[in-house]
Write a structure and sequence with these properties.
about 150 residues; 6 helices; globular; DNA-binding transcription factor activity; DNA binding
Length: about 150
């Protein structure tokens, strides 16, 4: 059934990502990588916005950010317009690591979709995008693009 296959593909994706990070000597999860990408593209956002941009739940995004701060990859700053709010941004170390990782993560996509031709990969991505967009509001952590 599709649900089973999607779960298996997610397991494979997570395993391939973790193996590559271990090979590079890094302790970084795919969610942390997604957060780094989102912060690179949207410096100064808060945790709630970050959660929406990477389709991660608000309850656990704090732990993700805490770990990235502890690794000196992300900095929290007080928002000058709202002193209660915190803005997030990549540190220099975070930006350097992200630039190093982008080609690695792009390369491992082939391993995740092993067995598919280039045309099949393109078709798969098109169909996966269509179905995830159609079901976005059913997710406990919907993707919320920034306006």
């Amino acid at each position: 059934m599709p649900g089973f296959l999607i779960r298996r593909l997610n397991q494979i994706s997570m395993s391939v990502f973790q193996e590559r990070m271990q090979r590079l000597g890094l302790d970084l999860t795919s969610v942390q990588f997604a957060a780094l990408v989102a912060l690179s593209e949207n410096p100064g956002i808060d945790q709630a916005t970050l959660a929406g941009l990477i389709a991660h739940d608000r309850v656990t995004i704090g732990g993700v950010v805490d770990r990235l701060v502890a690794k000196d990859l992300v900095a929290r700053r007080i928002n000058p317009q709202d002193r209660r709010a915190r803005q997030l941004a990549l540190t220099d170390s975070g930006a350097t690591l992200l630039q190093r990782l982008i080609p690695e993560v792009q390369a491992l996509q082939h391993d995740i979709l092993a067995g598919l031709s280039a045309a099949e990969v393109a078709a798969f991505v098109t169909l996966a995008r269509r179905t995830t967009e159609a079901g976005n509001d059913r997710s406990r952590a919907p993707l919320r693009p920034r306006d």
